[in-house]
Design brief:
The complex is a heterodimer of chains A (118) and B (648).
Chain A lengths: L1 H16 L19 H9 L8 H12 L28 E2 L13 E3 L2 E4 L1
Antiparallel strand pairs in A: 2-3
Chain B lengths: L3 E4 L37 H8 L29 E2 L2 E9 L3 H10 L5 E4 L8 H4 L4 E2 L8 H11 L6 H20 L6 E2 L6 E2 L9 E2 L5 H14 L4 E4 L2 E11 L2 E11 L4 E12 L20 H8 L4 E2 L4 E8 L17 E2 L1 H5 L3 E3 L7 H4 L8 H15 L4 E4 L5 H7 L1 H9 L9 E10 L2 E3 L8 E2 L1 E3 L4 E2 L11 H12 L1 H9 L22 H25 L3 E2 L1 H24 L9 H22 L8 E2 L13 E4 L20
Parallel strand pairs in B: 3-4, 3-12, 4-9, 11-20, 12-21, 19-22, 23-24
Antiparallel strand pairs in B: 1-25, 2-3, 5-8, 7-8, 10-11, 11-12, 13-19, 13-25, 14-18, 16-17, 17-18
The chains are: A mainly alpha (118), B alpha/beta (648).
């Protein structure tokens, strides 16, 4: 009884007042997904998805030739560095930004596990 | 508590009479206001507030003024006069975060500016805002979309006009920052790299690696330091605003401050004052805010008769690292909380109470993947029911390598304190993060006190409503700091400074006469009282609230405050004495009381404010909570300006 009541109470508030896209009828993609699919999903939606240029393609081929850990999307990739030292994040297309997966992939802003904004 | 609290909606009529002192429990209908239970669009808070707070040209001819005195239009390096411990400026800015600095840079083109900051200039909540700032900067995005996201996040309590203004003007404010030298991340295509944070339906978060706040602060501070018209007074703690009554109007003439390095009082007399003093996280024991965030601005404004709004909406993060649960406790108390990311739950982390019971399924079908606010409430509920200090977030069932590669920061921090997160659960507790409420502001950042403007976290502009959307706080600060500029300049030009005005208010004094032994006792007691207040706030005014608990809080806080003040005055403390710890304590008491009053007044649950006895949204209550100034009868030391004598 208590379980159902509490569940209803908290859920009813959350549906009305919490801005999670997963609760909105407009959204087709819940924000709070887990597993390795989430990062690539966000990249597909990004309006900022950069086009791969020749140099990038060459780098990518080079990387594919190297044996990589299957968890690559969650690891830093040093071959991304340009000559001038500006790091380009392969997953997000960002120049000089945080390495690794998109800090906002779970909704909050996180770096290496620490949350800075939400 | 003498403050009267009311729901206010519709048009506020200028010059209307308020009901006073009827007690915080009653929701008072202010005369002249029509409440028609209508939709958000009709509740023109900002329009009403703007009309009410209309800046009319202050005619100071009835007020002591030296007719031959010119206002400070000419700007030179020695433009400010010094008369003993009084300094005269055209503009006084309290706070050196993004709002204060942004404003200072603009108004400095028109007059002299003092930036008064209580620690080092970079010590502000801005500096810790590491995420980003939201703005519509992508062609496929729209102001309407940003507005919608903001209003939904705010549980429909936002003021629509404010939201429109902020979302519309945001992009220009970002562009200006870039022009000022702030460096934001780009994509390979050369465009700004925009991230998408929870609650946003488009990518619109501009950021600088993972230190956006710091980067903005750096760029602004550099410009401020290089501006010859701006003088930064660091380690100057603002004590009370200098105000006078002109009929029914309150006018602000500057601020008293304590130089905490030299222990000297400095009086700043200014034509215009901007309050940009940030948040009040330290009314709670666990907070992400740096130590400077003790609600100084909200308290000073309340004491200066400014209207305060929506203080019940305190944003907590559900899972901050709980030092109490670490095998090796940090040597000194952590200054600001280490938040454990949602990603841990997203990756399969499970929440347990200290009896190792998984509790989330009892609260929500989505268990650990429920929305953050639901998780926060659930954790709070568990802690209060079980009278425990933290819960456990366990990711140890996942592969060790994955844990270490995804969360190296958490792993390292915990390991430093004797905890291996690949083997043991992480102790976590909610932490206070952001105050959605504050000093009520109109669309130009104006308040009901003439010459007093507000911007940033200290303000309640109507943008956040009942809950802040991620990355909207830096945006709000930028927009309102900018909007307050022209009205400030206009006000400044119509004002004259009276050099003898400085003598109108009693000078604060440092408690040298008490001697070091007594001061030591007072400081020690004050530290204990602060901990006690924080404990009461967390226990009784946390995330899940009830009328009973809030009433208990009110009583306990009242008793604690009385006990503390009695202690002070019994040891020779005088009404006008000032010391950093004591002044911060009185501000914390003031803010705590404002939060409790506001929480008691809202008989519904909305956004961040959840009440067990009013668990649902009530359409008729979709109105801001407003606290009007209290009368000075029988008021405490924390409730009145230092130079105001109690009336008994």
């Amino acid at each position: 009884m208590v379980r159902a009541t509490l569940s209803r109470l908290f859920s009813s508030i959350s549906e009305l007042s919490i801005p999670k896209p997963s609760l909105s009828s407009v959204r087709s993609e819940p924000m709070t997904r887990f597993g390795s699919n989430s990062a690539s999903r966000f990249l597909c939606c990004s309006a900022q998805q950069p086009q791969l240029n020749h140099q990038e393609k060459a780098n990518e081929e080079k990387r594919e030739a190297v044996k990589e850990d299957p968890e690559i999307e969650n690891k830093e990739n040093e071959e991304d560095d340009f000559e001038d030292g500006d790091h380009v994040n392969k997953q997000t297309g960002e120049v000089g930004g945080p390495r690794g997966p998109e800090p906002t992939r779970y909704g909050d802003w996180e770096r290496n596990g620490r949350c800075y904004d939400f | 508590m003498a403050a009267s609290v009311a729901y206010v909606g519709g048009q506020l009529q200028y010059g209307m009479n308020f009901y006073w002192g009827q007690g915080y429990r009653q929701a008072l209908w202010v005369p002249g206001v029509t409440i028609n239970g209508c939709l958000q669009r009709e509740l023109s808070w900002s329009r009403g507030v703007s009309k009410f707070l209309q800046i009319h040209r202050c005619n100071f001819s009835h007020y002591p003024v030296r007719e031959n005195w010119k206002s400070f239009r000419t700007v030179t390096t020695s433009a400010y006069l010094k008369d003993g411990s009084t300094k005269y400026f055209d503009f006084a800015v309290i706070g050196s975060g993004v709002a204060g600095l942004r404003y200072a840079l603009e108004v400095a083109k028109h007059g002299t500016v003092a930036v008064i900051t209580k620690a080092e200039p970079h010590e502000s909540n801005t500096n810790y805002a590491q995420g980003g700032v939201s703005a519509v900067l992508c062609p496929s995005d729209s102001v309407e979309s940003h507005m919608q996201d903001t209003i939904v996040a705010g549980a429909y309590l936002c003021d629509e006009e404010t939201v429109k203004v902020v979302c519309t003007e945001g992009p220009d404010r970002i562009r200006e920052l870039i022009a000022m030298g702030a460096s934001f991340d780009h994509g390979e295509d050369g465009n700004l790299h925009l991230a998408r944070e929870g609650g946003h339906s488009h990518h619109r978060i501009v950021h600088a690696a993972d230190m956006t706040g710091r980067e903005i602060e750096r760029a602004l501070l550099e410009a401020v330091i290089n501006d010859p018209n701006i003088v930064v007074f660091k380690h100057h703690f603002a004590i009370d605003l200098l105000t006078s009554q002109y009929g029914s109007d309150t006018v602000c003439h500057g601020v008293d401050a304590l130089n905490t390095e030299t222990q000297e009082v400095v009086r700043f007399v200014s034509k215009v004052t901007l309050l940009a003093s940030g948040g009040a996280g330290h009314i709670y024991p666990s907070t992400t805010n740096p130590p400077v965030a003790t609600g100084d601005g909200m308290a000073m404004a309340h004491r200066a008769q400014a209207v305060i709004s929506n203080m019940e909406f305190v944003q907590f993060h559900p899972t901050a690292l709980a030092d109490e649960g670490l095998p090796i406790k940090p040597k000194k108390t952590r200054e600001n909380a280490f938040l454990v990311t949602e990603a841990v739950r997203g990756d399969g982390g499970i929440l347990f109470n200290l009896s190792m019971e998984r509790f989330m399924p009892f609260y929500d079908e989505r268990a650990e993947l429920a929305p953050r606010d639901v998780v926060a409430r659930s954790i709070d509920d568990q802690l209060k029911k079980r009278n425990e200090k933290y819960v456990l977030l366990d990711i140890s069932h996942k592969p060790r390598e994955k844990i270490l590669s995804h969360f190296p920061n958490i792993a390292a921090e915990c390991l430093q304190h004797g905890l291996d997160i690949t083997q043991q659960p992480i102790p976590v507790v909610p932490a206070a993060h952001y105050m959605c409420g504050g000093v009520r502001a109109g669309l130009q950042g104006e308040t009901n006190v003439h010459g007093l403007y507000v911007a940033g976290e200290v303000a309640c502009t109507g943008l956040h409503g009942a809950n802040r959307l991620a990355s909207n706080s830096l945006l709000e600060a930028l927009v309102f700091a900018r909007r307050a500029v022209q009205p400030s300049i206009d006000h400044m030009k119509s004002s004259s400074l009276d050099l003898s005005a400085s003598n109108l208010w009693t000078q604060p004094v440092v408690p040298k006469s008490l001697g070091s032994d007594v001061m030591h006792k007072i400081l020690r007691t004050t530290k204990e009282v602060r901990k006690e207040l924080q404990s009461v706030m967390w226990k009784y005014v946390g995330i899940v609230r009830s009328t009973t608990r809030l009433q208990e809080a009110e009583q306990k806080i009242g008793e604690l405050e009385a006990k503390w003040e009695t202690y002070l005055f019994e040891h020779g403390w005088q009404q006008t004495m000032v010391a950093l710890d004591a002044c911060e304590m009185r501000n914390l008491f003031c803010c705590a009381k404002l939060v409790v009053s506001s929480a008691l007044a809202r008989h519904e649950s909305r956004g961040l404010h959840y009440m067990i006895d009013f668990p649902h949204l009530e359409e008729s209550k979709r109105l801001p909570t407003v606290i009007f100034p209290s009368s000075h009868m029988m008021s405490t030391w924390s409730s009145r300006q230092l130079h105001q004598q109690p009336m008994y």
